[in-house]
Amino acid sequence: MAFLMILVWLSRDTRARNWGPETRAWLWAYPAFLMVGTAIHAGQLRYFLANFPLLLVLVGSPPPNALPRIRLAIVAFACLVGLGLQWFWIDHALIMHSENITVWLP
Predict the structure, then answer these.
(1) What is the mean predicted confidence (pLDDT) over 80-101?
(2) Helix H segments across 38-67?
């Protein structure tokens, strides 16, 4: 419950001032749905990948008078971090590198 309260507080914070009401609601409503609708298990972390506003909170909203180049740099940096994390996930969770494991695959 405290986690949801923190997310509601973050959706009302100044870092989220440029977001629309749908994005603000998604920040706390989607995790609430996951907590109510799914059981806690090891793979639940991947469900939180669809909660994109969590990364927006980390990046924050640039000031309204910020240059478009700064906004572009922030978005590009966030995309590169996301691609790097995606590569890490695929390389370590989906691809088997050991010969001992792949012996049983056709």
Answers:
(1) 77
(2) 44-47, 53-59
